[in-house]
Queue: 3 jobs
Job 1
Amino acid sequence: MSWPSELAQKYRQNGVWSDETFDDIVARKASDPAFADKVAVVDADRSLTYAELDDRVGRLAAGLAELGIAPDDRVLLQIPNSVAYIEAVFAVFRMRALPVFGLPAHRATELVGVARSADAVAIISPASTRGFDYRALAETVREQVDTVRHLIDSDDLEQFWAEPRDHGRADPEDLGFLQLSGGSTGVPKLIPRTHADYLYSVRRSNEVCGVDQDTVYLVVLPAAHNFPMSSPGILGALHAGGTVVLAAAPLPSVAWELVQRDRVTMVGLVPPLARIWTETAEGGTDFDLSSLATVQVGGARCPDELARRISPALGVTLQQVFGMAEGLVCYTGLDDPEDEVTGTQGRPMSEWDELRLVDEDGVPVTDGPGFLETQGPYTIRTYWKDASPSSFADDGWYRTGDVVELTGRGNLIVRGRGTDRINRGGEKVSAEQVEEHILAHPAVRDVIVVASSDQYLGERTCAYVIPADLAEPPTLGVLRAFVRASGLAEWKLPDAIKVIEAFPETGVGKVSRKKLRELLTH
Ligand code: J2J
């Protein structure tokens, strides 16, 4: 489950792992006169100082405990970007239960799967409908997952408040939360992270990214994603005593209003958003973006051409980020030479990160490219309750599945992936899961989903369909509506379909995804 004792000992002795807990982040700032009255979190409608946030967290934590939620219980969150999200996360931390980070875009398939694997006891999500009925979805999950007892309305957290009390202190080396993987299997695997391992990555990220109390970090990606959460993201900004601004939508029309209003200094974007921001700025804007100092781009490969345009267009320093919720995060440095910033995905943030490149059989290769494997003080060694730990080498190193090359200075260039996971502009799609859902349609005899390249998203999905009746193949519209209705997140609906009579095969008679991908480029 955890790190071998010699490694753990080394991390402890060298102060890599400390005795800090997630709850300390807010609690310590709230009790420090230099920070108590400073604004900690802001959204379009309201803001809270550290002292106010701490007070509200204390009341909600007590209320959750009063409901019967106990330390180590799992609490599933599905909350749009807002101050309420931060309150809920820290309240769960305070009463020592474990947040499970669902995304607002998740639908019944994902949420039921996650609630079941986590044995979640409660769901915190909005009861009011804002474009989508989150409460109805939570009800569905409760009906299908026995352990779920409480549905908590994130729009009205006050109704759950109780008198603050002492919940005791978590052991920093115990689990703090469960993050979701963008894995290649159907239901996302759960990633168990400890206070000590994750907070090391947050503190180290702050050093590398120059985050301090003057940082105003804007969250435009879904806040529960690992990138805006910790690289350095929300936790980094709060840890440093800075301010977190949460945007309800990532587009310039919404987000730039907040940049201007709150004098935002830093933001994390995925490449398609970075392109929209860049193109909009190149076209000219009346918004005052002069406070913005750093734009991070990560989650998917940023094309070099786009990378070169970001700094001049937005008047910022670009930082590329190659990270994963399982651990390892790489950054380009803020003072790195231009070609390194625009042409690489950075280098490991920690001297304690260990990397190796291997071939398809796991044999080390000296010259890349190769499959990246890694171990380190903030990289997990197993998934939560993992029955088939194929993502880990025999010695516990994490197999990222990414094909990378190393430059002379130790920077990584991401060349692709080996598995069937499609990276749709930073949102990960499991081909297997989408296939399963399409296959349930009566007009489909067989289906294979592959990535096709896309100018904006990097990759998008194409479903090769063998119809039940060749004379009457299903249309894209029909399949998308069908998959949507089956309860899958919108970003996983197929972008294109191709009707085919039979799949090409490999030499050993297996369906060749590679040949199907090649068909798309010819
Ligand atoms: C190419 N591929 C990338 C990049 C991630 C910071 C930033 C991102 C994530 C994240 C994160 C990439 N170029 N710059 O957790 O803390 C692909 C790789 C990787 C996978 C992980 C963070 N940045 N990727 O994206 O868990 O394939 O984390 O293995 O969602 O995204 O996805 P995820």
Job 2
Amino acid sequence: GLASILPGPSTQVVQYVAQRVKGPDGTVAELPGSYLGPLLRLHRGQKVRINFRSKLAEPTIVHWHGLHVPAVMDGHPMHVIDNGETYVYEFEVLNRAGLHIYHPHPHELLGKQLYQGLAGGIIVNDEEESKLELPSGEYEIPIIIQDRRFDAQNRMAYVPTMHDRMMGYYGDRILVNGRPEMALDVASRAYRLRFLNGSNARIYKLGWSDGTPITVIGVDGGLLETPETLPYVMLAPGERLDVWADFSGRAKGSEFTLRSLPFQGVLPKMAGRMMGGGMGGMGGGMMAGMALPVGSDFPIFKVRVTRTTSDSPKLPGHLSSFKRYTLAEVANPAKPIPIGISEAPMAMLLNGRPYKFDDVQPNERIPVDTVQLLEIFHAHGGEGGGHGAATQSEGGHGGAGGDKPQGGMGGGMMGGMGHGMMGGGMGGMGHGGGQSGGMGMMGGMGGGMMLSMAHPIHLHGQQFQTISRGIGAGEAEDYATVKDGFIDSGLKDTVLVMPGEKVRIIKPFQDFKGLFVYHCHNIEHEDMGMMRDFLVE
Ligand code: C2O
Ligand code: CU
Ligand code: CU
């Protein structure tokens, strides 16, 4: 087995030194045998103090993903501490019951630190939820899913190439709660499975192997109003899912698996072609990373019914009540705050610029205690052929790249795909002598990237509602493989935006002023600068 999982050679052993959380419900439960941090259990209304001490030889800070806390308690990258320093967090748990995450948030180091194990779950409970008497104790199981690569010594290896940074860093082994090959021995009764996608980049399409639909009772921000039954559910990095898994009536000895089912459209089309033909220039890293291709069919964990019982709780018809805003209540019904996704050479951007601390634009200044309409869209998706090459200044590089056959390929792709910036930049790389073979291939990939890729967009602060989605005609076929796996009826803080998709959300900005980041939760994208600040003032 992988009992000897150790941090990779280039990284020091890191750990959270967090004080045990005090308070009536503040017990700390461990995930035995895991590299993940302890599961923190908090209660709504509880006042929490956590002393975070860093033993890392590089900057870090902790963010409480999903919790609504003051800006200075939110783990903004500007608050990083150094080796030996302590950051004291004090906040009141304002959230309703739900599953959240703590993870590092230093800019440009998040991917590595999260990968090496600096993360854990936070379960908040409240009175409304307790009254439901949902399965608890041994019948409530956290399922933190991560994919990892291991080197020849069986150590986790985080060594992203430029290609990994563009696509996200994918592993070829699936770990649940920090352990491989998870198998759950269950009784024939209902369980509550609390899913959290803690992967850096991998998106899952969760489904039962025998075709049983998935009954969802909650998402990122807590319980839904009523249960929803779906054929499968999409789970992107940073997203959570509360699942009612009813094994009652199952025979003793029966076995089935929770799988990630096949889907398309998450990665740029061209990347697939690249893998077939483009090995030379890109090196082995890409193949290694795609040993378990994104969108392929693979098991996540196995369930074995080992005990029968006739004593199972019933699924409540009504789960919870929470405030839902209407367009009439938002400050800007006709003028949504834009969150434009763009993919540029060697960069992934929001609103056309890479992250720079405090670089807030007029539309990123939000009056406190308002509710806002936001629109997330692909800024360059679906533009006409040739448009980009003609109008982007970087398009000129594409032409220069044309001196080399490979560079020409990059530039040519671009022209055809209508985005001069990407192909132009990549094509230009073709001048790099010995590198030209590989970079020419990247030019080709750049062409494919014009079709864009999926991004899980996460906004700090309070949870939001997803009120509408729209998809471009060109992407409809791929979209059909994922479209029945979204749950828009609950409160979210991370939303998967598929290629060509436009998503409208309503989000409150209440209680706390200050800088709060929003970013892509494909962590490699975030590290590349696909992050921006909101200044709530
Ligand atoms: Cu899960 Cu900004 O974070
Ligand atoms: Cu967050
Ligand atoms: Cu992204």
Job 3
Amino acid sequence: MDPRTIGVLGGGQLGRMLVEAASRLNIKVVILDTPPNAPAKQIQATQSHIHGDFKDPYKIRELAKTANVLTIEIEHVNAEILKTLMNENTIVIHPSPSTIKLIQNKFSQKTHLSKHKIPVVDFIDVPTKDDLSIAIEKFGYPLMLKSKTLAYDGRGNYLLRSEDEISNALESLGNFSIPLYAERWTSFAKELAVMVVRRANGEVKSYPVVETVQKENICHLVFVPAQINGVISEKAKTIAEEAIQTLEGAGVFGVEMFLMNDGHIYVNEIAPRPHNSGHYTIEACETSQYENHIRCILDLPLGSTALKVPAAAMINILGKSNDLQETLRPCAESLSIPGATIHLYGKQDCRKGRKMGHITVVSDSISQLFSRIKPILEIVNENEH
Ligand code: ATP
Ligand code: MG
Ligand code: MG
């Protein structure tokens, strides 16, 4: 299909699903990540992958030697060495290292978006404890204190509710060892997300608007179509596409948004890669986010992003404890649910809150969808406060 080899920095579940899509197209993928049995390495097991850190410049150079195109499945990579490699002009890298670097830092990302008139919630730099007092004065309680870098699954966020919690908050975020900033707390009506695919020539296409539900800062459920009116849906799509047009490079991008009761929409953050809120596209769309990412970075024609079913949902299977069997009970239940597809990530250690897999359910209508997912959600939600 295509003789080029793709090198991927990161070997987690997003890499795994990317390799699944590449495998169908006979496209070779080399993964760089530390564990020899990383989820993504298990899929093309006959391929020799690279065991090492995706922040290690030597390992990244080794990856670049084996591949024609480099991409990422996690943004917390060494963007500097990617910039150097790009300047050496020996390899194609998507998305562009400057985009990866910008997005790595949520504060620079928000500054960039607001400079380009993309709506974001009010935010302020918090380099010291005194600046935190200024932020509190400005935004009041509750206040969202966030790590600028290395954040994922809500690790790096602290919802500060009162003065009593300040020292706890600072301690749990590393006492400024990782730089911090603050955001105004947003009492959103819904969280939305749009996956946008962008070719190097600037052509963009977006997937349908989804609703995402997070519990304790971590994505729990995604469903599509979002239960919003057509005007809001168009607006979310336009904002997402405009946000992506401010960035350089090709690939798929996840745009997370807050929808307020008055119809206002704010961009929360952007992921420069396939995204949890786009897993459902594997079963529910004409071309999945993973295949479209591959098409984008190889500069092949984009596939249709349209839904091929009326409704779909994705439920994350997060570790309940270190007991894998207990964690996988929703999967056992979904075996007897029509339209359900189980994805397990092949992770060796099950830990509380770790993403171990997901279940996608497709359906003929949104009401049928909710009745199909109900028994799965009941098990997922068991014993939760
Ligand atoms: P991800 O795994 O998506 O990268 P993250 O660690 O980068 O997550 P955020 O996306 O910043 O974290 O926040 C996680 C969740 O916390 C959001 O989806 C939302 O539910 C809530 N949240 C974040 N910022 C705010 C805010 N300013 N006001 C209200 N809720 C917020
Ligand atoms: Mg994030
Ligand atoms: Mg997020």
